[in-house]
């Protein structure tokens, strides 16, 4: 699959003057709840009304969705409010029912994207559809797996495709429910600049008070839209209570978000930008040169260790370097997180060099 300009035609055709907004409850709970939220969202920027009908939960025994009964409620939403509708599908039977109930946008959840079998089943069931189909990232940070799912849909002649970035599971506890790992979304945009990409701050944060900041970051990174879970009574929602916002909070978020443009034609801006980018290019070259010099020194140490039969890893020395560099970084406005990541990568490369020498 290659990037194609036409990948974003469906989005351009919507003619929006704001990011695409998909909002609605995590789960459809009752007909009354679904319609009440829909009416509150009717005259806002919301383009697609979402509600989960089949809910794959982490553990059995929790509320697992109302099933296809909820599709009738979504049809009613469309009749009463004119809003288009969206839901998650996880197998061929879901697809069939969703299409029968004229759902306009279907998405494949993170737990389905991990399974090529399931994705293929869904792609076959959707073959040639003119509905919009969005693919959430797989739970694990695996870009080829994400792209593979999109390719399967693309090969099934589905034209209105896009992705949803909902963050990634991690073993360690972080402030996020699912760590955003923005670099993955940036890499996806680099390879497929015309494939629409939507951010899902609700699942990334897991907490409603973090949704604004993550949404703003997404817009700053050229995301095309947002999917934000919205409930009339978030605290008493039957699923994902902590991350849902009220319709009025959603409206406020949309109002406060700053929408940036891709570029600006003004000459002064462009010459200042060129100047600073030239500085960055010089520094980047210096960084590479310095890293090459550092590796040469490490190669020398590798040769010495070989002569004396000494182990490659020297934890005490390594620990000293890390501690010193974190402090040095602070003086230059560099975060500890960045310094640790960068020096761990440098250390690994240094070890690889020495391994080659010692075992060569
Ligand atoms: C370079 C050495 O070997 C390894 C690599 C290090 C580095 O690249 O800074 C530090 C300690 C060792 O784990 C060394 O022993 O000094």
TrEMBL record:
Biological-process GO terms, alphabetical: chorismate metabolic process
Source organism's superkingdom? Bacteria
UniProt-listed Enzyme Commission number(s): 5.4.99.5
InterPro entries registered for this protein in UniProt: Aldolase_TIM, Chorismate_II_sf, Class-I_DAHP_synthase, CM_dom_sf, CM_II_prokaryot, DAHP1/KDSA
Note the coiled coil stretches, chain numbering.
259-286
Q: Which Pfam families match?
A: CM_2, DAHP_synth_1
Q: Which UniProt keywords apply?
A: Coiled coil, Transferase
GO MF entries: chorismate mutase activity; transferase activity
Its name, as the record gives it, is chorismate mutase
Lineage at the top is: Bacteria, Pseudomonadati, Bacteroidota, Flavobacteriia, Flavobacteriales
